[in-house]
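This protein record is not my work; I was only asked to verify it. Where you disagree with what is written, explain briefly why. This is what I was given:
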Amino acid sequence: MQRKFKIIFTFSIALIVGSFSRANAADIFVTPSLGNYSKGQSFSVSIYVSSPDSAINAVSGILSFPSDTLEVTSISKTGTIMSLWVQEPTFSNQAGTVNFEGVILNPGFTGPSAKILTVNFRAKGYGLADTTFSSASILANDGTGTNVLKAISGGHYNINTVPQTPANAEVTTPSIAENSPAAPKIISPTHPDPNKWYSQNNATFSWRPLPDGVTQVRTLLNKSANSLPTILNSADTTEKTVENIPDGTFYFHVQLKNKNGLGSISHFRVNVDTTPPAPFKITVQNGQELSDPSPIVSFVTSDSVSGVEKYQAKIGDGDFFDISNSAVAVDAFMLPKQLPGKRTLLIQAIDRAGNKTVAYTEINVLPIDPPQMNVYSDALKSGDFLSLDGATYPDSSVYIFVTKLGEDEEKRIVRSDPDGRFSFVWPKALEEGKYKIYLQAVDKRGAVSVNSRIHEFNVAPGVLIQIGPIKTNNVYVGAFIMIMIVASLIGGISGWYINFRHKYGIHRYSPKKKN
């Protein structure tokens, strides 16, 4: 019995711990996780954490790297979520390590990803260079410092070089043998346009069909525009793929040979850029909480290989839209008008190869004050007109919303004067029933107010008009009926009078004419 209880207890504890671990898992990883670089090239690797389900308040670790292939040139804490460092980030190129340990103050961090620090490397040797976490921990902000680390991911980088032509190859022009092969036409299915940049660093080149009698194919890829190919290939070679091309502009050269000798050389340019633009930050002028509906932001970055081609922005759940380069150049871009509320601003810098670097910030557009309203609704009766006046911001639009119980809301707009005063008469006569009215203002900048207080009022039945058996509370209908009755009476009296004169021979007096 005791053994059975112990097994059940142990199993229950395991379930509880397992459930906690799954619900509060956090990861640590590096980005970019893959890359191809040439010897001497500098590149950056950022360490990130992810904890989408629970708050964390401490992160520590040791990032290891091969000291024969990479060396750290500096460490940057820009953009970190760490509030303070228990141990300032340090590195040792001799040991091949980067050490860090920091704390995030209450309430900690919860989210899909956040930066810890950036490590700037320089490639100093050839081969594969992997960065790995030899140790790491992520502590939950739960009062007990539970380690919620679930997964770690390092990076894999290829440090390579492209064979170069001997120095005299640029100036030596071989004689072209008579009846030797013509220069082949080179095409590239992976990099078809020599004037464009591509993020793909494995390039395929082809030249077909081969002319008859070819005995040798020579190829070369290097940074020189007019080199002599030096790599020998079989006579039937019509395609070649070069992998792990470093960033930059390169040229692929092909030369054919037959029994008469070497022919003319073809050259094909290929532009490779696998590195995204440098990381950047977005600055919101006048703070991130403001009443201006068109916040002004500034940002800029660079791309050392192909250059930044364009910037795009996305606000909240909206679509991406382009940002003009002139706005970026003056370091001031005005966002489209925004309604009040908090939303995320995302800006991505895209280089000419399509690589992207994304920056985020948050903007909070505050509403302006609502209009002040005076409604003259005392003793309103059916057929009356609603009138109101009030005050708001100068030269603003005032939206007037009126709803009769059981019917759809109606809206009208009136402008305030330079002093902010406005007045309005609802264009339709009111019918009997219950109503409510509220206002909203939009100032000349486009800033939107919160809704004003709701004013409710009743419209009583109009004055009852009875003309004989006819009853109505509509003034206009009553007036029309009265006019018709009066007209009928006048017509009847006129007819009776004419008939009376004719019956009794009463004629209008006419003086006699003199002879």
In short: The first strand starts at residue 26 and ends at 31.
